Structure formats: structure tokens, C-alpha cells
Amino acid sequence: MDLTQHLKDRHVNLDSHRFLLDEEAQVATALLYNLSEQICGYQQYRPLVDKTRRNDPKEGRYYTYKTEGTLAVFGVESLHLTPHLVFLVEGMFDAARLCSRGFSALAVLSNRSEGLVEVSESESRCFV
User: In the chain, what are the domain boundaries?
Assistant: First the structure.
């Protein structure tokens, strides 16, 4: 599998989004940032692995690491697209698809509402 093409097929703009690619191991690693744009974690994605192992650093389809007590999001590099309107979504590919359409989007990497509330209360932007 061509990992770069796979990410492009999932609407990831590799010129905009910060990914580290290991084509041999088939691992894409996205850097995660806080809202001050400081690196505070990463999410690994292995497209060839099934979803049965959750948050396993070696065998999981997705593995997320973030500094404890820190809000880590994917997509801060898109905030310039629509500075006053930002979509909050669950996953990085949801955010990448919106960015490919010209919208700012942040992925909170969770379907729990706490991350969404924390982001929306910390910024003076309109969040959807």
C-alpha cells in the first residue's frame, strides 16, 4: 500500500497537515498541538491494522499519546482558513475533509463532549 496516496484519498493535504510517514512500517503519525500551537502529543494511524486493539502503541489501528492534563488537537494549522468559524470534530480525517473544502477544523480525538467544551470556552471564535 502507498501510505501517502492512502492519506490523500482520505482528504489529507500533506502540505498543510503535519504527518511523519513510515512507508515501510505503514504508520502515519500526526503531531498534536495545544491551542497555543505547541506540540503536546501525537496520534499514530496504521491503515492495514483492524480496529480490535484500541489505543495500543504497537498493534492498534490508532494510538494517541498526549501530555497529561493538556488539550491536544489535530488541525491547528487550518485555523487561518476561516479564522472566525471553526468546526469541532471527533477524528483527524473528519477535520482533514473539512480543511480540504476550505474550512478551519479541529479534531479533539474523542467523542466525549468534555474536549469540545474545553476548546469552545478557551477561544473567541465561533465553533460549530
Answer: 3-127
